[in-house]
Amino acid sequence: MPASLFPPYEDLLRILPEIVLTIAGTLVMVLEPALRPERKRLLGGIAIAGLLVALWGTAVANLFRGPAFHQMVVVDGFATFFRALVIVVGILAVLCSIHYLQRERPDSGEYYALVLFSVVGQSVMAAANELIMIFIGLEISSIATYVLAGYLRDDRRNNESAIKYFLLGSFATAFLLYGIAWIYGAAGTTNLVEIRRVLSTPELAPPRFLVGVSAALMFVGFAFKVSAAPFQVWAPDVYQGAPAPVTAFMSAGPKAAAFAIFLRVYMTAFEPISNRWEPVVWLSALATMFVGNFAALLQNNIKRLLAYSSIAHAGYVMVAVSAHSEIGTAAAMFYLAAYAFMNVGAFAVVTHFARQGEKYVDVDDLAGLGHRQPVTAALFSIFLLSLIGIPLTGGFFGKFYIFKAALEAKLYWLTVIGLLNSAVAAYYYLRILVVMYFHEPGEAAQTVSPVAPGVKIALWASAAGTLLLGIFPSVILDFADRSAALMK
Amino acid sequence: MDVPLFLIFAAIAVACGVNVVVQRHPITSAISLIGVMGSLAALYLLLGGEFIAAVQVVVYAGAIMVLFVFVIMLLNAGAEGRSGRSWPVRLLGIPFLVLLLGLLSFVVQAYAPKTDRVVFGAFTSGGPRDIGKLLFTEYLLPFELTSVLILIAIAGAVVLARKEID
Question: Would an 8 Å CB–CB cutoff place A137 in contact with chain B?
């Protein structure tokens, strides 16, 4: 009997990335008090090393596909894809943060631990096959992100951001939890595959309406986490107030992980009632695109502008979700990867340009950056063009596959409106480009300092990722295509 | 005997739950919350989950509420001032709440299966032995991950609350 209590070794290998990240996070916390303030950036190095090992761990775990720990998690292509994605976002965010933290507040070790643990949560979400795991992963990721948003305690905007994110986030999580309670009451299980089995067996199936309420309540929680309308109100304030590298992190990593669980729950557990949730997702996709793009037109603060743009991009992914097909899932995966690179890249530029105390965060401050720092401006242009969806960038193929999936699902109106929205979006991205290249250098651009090494690596890596996805999309898309069939 | 007891404790739980939100002094809210926890424990007991009822009292009504009250005292929090609410909240808040509650109770009334009614005291498997066994076999991974969750909560609290030592 005691022997059977120890989980089999394959199971442990299947959660290798989480184990590695947890060890690295704990190591950072243990070493933190032992280091002098000027040596604290060493912890950033440990964090990156931990994330790289975890990336390798993801590849190892991928060799042992299948469920683990009594079906609590499942390692499949989908899980591997999102695990790798959130880990890469973590690496890029840490690279941006090292210099930022030295600039804003020198004694900062826990920051890296919080990032690592947040990635643990997101990685768990990517592989979760059980509502309990989804909840715990989401909470780990969210709580770490709440704290990161308010990391610079003496900054009032940070405080505002953290408290808003925390209060609204907890409220949304309560909805998710309530939905989980309903489905447990209706189906008698919290395992996604089991729920699907119960719902699609006529003798066992609980009344559709009960399941529908559960799906609706859980939708509130997920829509909040991916900042989809009508639950997007928090995003601009939180993104604007949080430290720039944290915004880079939380607009890509937690969002991708939230979409991962969103897809997994609705494509497996709630698949039997798909005719009930498809219209809801459809409407939400529509509203999200409109709110994001049209509000972004009016913004002058670049972090706020990118926040609204991030809402709009969530809308495009929601289009892929409402297509409700394997092609749609693959398109959503591809888009989230492309979005992660271009968005983190854009926020890396903001991190670099904002300077001490984030003084320069208006679009007009960027005036003349194209003359002062042509390389940075060129990289920024790549990210902006990709966000618009210009060919040869990841953003183009992302949108292409999403609207292709939508057309195949006969969502003609949504496709048309999505394309029109992309055209609207081009305006506010191009405005940044115009300011950057055609305006006379202002005070902000005159005084810009050279790019810090960490930010530089992050910039180049994001640009490489964006272009790679734009020029050789099949590298990622083939994997996404093969992984889109979820365990049922 | 079971049904009247259930109704009494359920009513107390709901009334206390509403009171938590309505009250403006944090201490009154906290004490109402103890009422919720206590009546939930009584409901568990009615169903037969003795161990769960005991844990509910010891952990929630005991330990966690003590922390709540302790923090409220420490912060010396007074009655909250009435902040100006925006007009959509004032106009739509109550109707939407009524709508949500009405919808949920309608769904439960109309669709919840009525065939297998709850049998009071029929639940016998919630003992410490069963819970311990489940916790270390089937729910091992969530159990371990919860420790990461608690760790991150502690680390976060320390980061946000500590004083700088110069």
Answer: yes
